């Protein structure tokens, strides 16, 4: 191994339920510039030079870093669950109790994975940055979700278009760096239970079509580094797909990398029939991202893929006939308590006051009638780089798309205070 390299370990609480947790780990390599001024990330295509056989830094398909053990302890320090693996960099730990505080430890080849202190990126210019001591390390705690029948209040954060990256010192990078500690603060006070992303999770990179997220080193700047102390602590992240995550806006379709870094194949049950005709990009089956997640009895998240479906005979994924049984069931008022909050979220907003984007006629035609007949009271979207709150037929439509860069000349629709969530 060459001298002067630095390896930075990362920890990721990838998912959470009332009786289990998905814990993941990985890391990123850094090389100093030859002139000694700053560092750069080691590109995925160079990883084999510093770690033979490695092609992925982190995520569901990354090559194992060694023989790993994850232990989960309760508030009294008793071992509550344990899992081992030598084949992946993630494990499910099961058999936990609902609505209970736990902490976890990760060891790889007998050594603790969590460092005594983390090193954080500070941009210098271009892709150069300094690695400075953070003066802190990961807070490896979480609280399991309430049991499915519990009538409880949910607190969460939702934001989109955050994937611009912090690698440079420009306005967009500074904006994301300022938002990250706010999200971190919300985890502690008032104590949010999960995070919902509203698409455009990643568009960092030197791509003439608007960036890329094809490799883990792109995700370092846009996801893992800015939110590293949130990802290790307490709150799972529920993603949706934006136009910058797919080939709709960029040269490449990064769905496979999104699925890898958000562990979507492990976390969500298939939402469509197994024999459907599905998209294949670079050999990976990509039917669109649709899933449901419940928090207790009264809150249910519903992810809807609003991106273009150019490989199908329909324009948008939500119009594909194979997705209709899932959507029919999701908006069926007879299947669940009518008092529940059913919260659809996707990237493109049905209603938008601009200045860059406007109303989405395809959603107004296909999805809004479902919202009106399915007891929906709030819909979350991104795409426009500002905040908007519109009310139509008693449904609150919120746009929160300023997670990475804030648009100018924002317009607001007629606003009202949204009702509280929970029981």
Topology of this structure?
Elements: E1 6-16, E2 20-32, E3 39-41, H1 47-50, E4 68-73, E5 79-85, E6 90-94, E7 101-108, E8 111-112, E9 119-125, E10 128-133, E11 141-143, E12 156-159, H2 171-188, E13 194-197, H3 216-224, H4 228-231, E14 237-238, H5 255-262, H6 264-267, E15 279-281, E16 284-286, E17 291-295, E18 299-303, H7 324-330, E19 341-345, H8 361-366, H9 368-373, E20 378-381, E21 387-392, E22 395-400
Parallel strand pairs: 12-13, 13-14, 18-19, 20-22
Antiparallel strand pairs: 1-2, 2-3, 2-6, 4-5, 4-7, 7-8, 7-11, 9-10, 15-16, 17-18, 21-22
Would you give an account of this structure?
By secondary structure, this protein is of the alpha+beta class. Helices cover 16% and strands 28% of the residues. The chain is built from 9 helices and 22 strands. Strands 4, 5, 7, 8 and 11 form a 5-stranded antiparallel beta sheet that branches. Strands 1, 2, 3 and 6 form a 4-stranded antiparallel beta sheet that branches. Strands 12-13-14 form a 3-stranded parallel beta sheet, with no helix packed on it. The longest helix has 18 residues, at 171-188. The radius of gyration is 21 Å and the shape is globular. Residues 206-210, 271-286 and 409-423 have low confidence and may be disordered.
Task: Tell me the distance between the termini.
Answer: 57 Å
CATH class designation of the largest domain:
Alpha Beta
Mind telling me which CATH architecture of the largest domain this is? 4-Layer Sandwich
Q: How many distinct helices? A: 9
Classified in CATH, the superfamily of the largest domain is: Metallo-dependent phosphatases
Q: What is the mean pLDDT?
A: 85
């Amino acid at each position: 191994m060459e001298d002067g390299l630095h390896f930075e370990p990362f920890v990721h609480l990838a998912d959470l339920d009332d009786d289990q947790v998905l814990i993941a780990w990985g890391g990123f390599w850094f090389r100093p510039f030859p002139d000694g001024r700053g560092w750069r990330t080691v590109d995925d295509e160079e990883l084999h030079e510093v770690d033979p056989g490695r092609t992925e830094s982190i995520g569901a398909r990354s090559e194992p870093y060694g023989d790993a053990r994850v232990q989960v302890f309760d508030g009294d320090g008793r071992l509550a669950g344990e899992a081992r693996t030598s084949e992946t960099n993630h494990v499910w730990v099961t058999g936990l109790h609902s609505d209970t505080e736990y902490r976890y430890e990760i060891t790889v080849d007998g050594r603790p994975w969590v460092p005594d202190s983390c090193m954080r990126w500070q941009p210098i210019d271009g892709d150069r940055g300094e690695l400075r001591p953070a003066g802190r390390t990961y807070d490896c705690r979480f609280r399991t979700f309430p049991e499915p029948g519990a009538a409880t209040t949910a607190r969460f954060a939702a934001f989109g278009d955050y994937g611009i990256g912090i690698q440079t010192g420009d306005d967009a990078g500074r904006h994301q760096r300022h938002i990250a500690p706010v999200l971190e603060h919300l985890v502690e006070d008032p104590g949010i239970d999960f995070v919902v992303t509203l698409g455009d999770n990643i568009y960092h990179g030197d791509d003439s079509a608007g960036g890329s997220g094809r490799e883990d080193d792109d995700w370092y700047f846009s996801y893992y580094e800015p939110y590293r102390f949130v990802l290790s602590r307490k709150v799972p992240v529920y993603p949706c797909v934006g136009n910058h995550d797919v080939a709709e806006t960029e040269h490449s379709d990064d769905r496979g990398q999104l699925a890898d870094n958000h562990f979507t194949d492990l976390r969500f049950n298939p939402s469509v029939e197994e024999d459907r005709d599905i998209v294949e990009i670079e050999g990976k089956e990509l039917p669109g991202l649709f899933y449901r997640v419940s928090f207790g009895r009264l809150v249910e998240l519903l992810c809807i893929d609003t991106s273009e479906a150019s490989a199908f005979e329909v324009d948008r994924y939500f119009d594909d006939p194979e997705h209709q049984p899932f959507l029919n069931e999701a908006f069926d008022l007879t299947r669940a308590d009518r008092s529940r909050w059913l919260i659809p979220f996707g990237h493109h907003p049905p209603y938008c006051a601009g200045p860059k984007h406007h109303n989405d006629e395809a959603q107004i035609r296909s999805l809004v009638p479902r919202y009106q007949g399915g007891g929906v009271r709030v819909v979350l979207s991104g795409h426009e780089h500002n905040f908007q709150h519109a009310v139509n037929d008693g449904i609150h439509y919120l746009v929160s798309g300023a997670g990475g860069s804030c648009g100018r000349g924002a317009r607001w629709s007629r606003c009202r205070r949204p009702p509280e969530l929970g029981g």
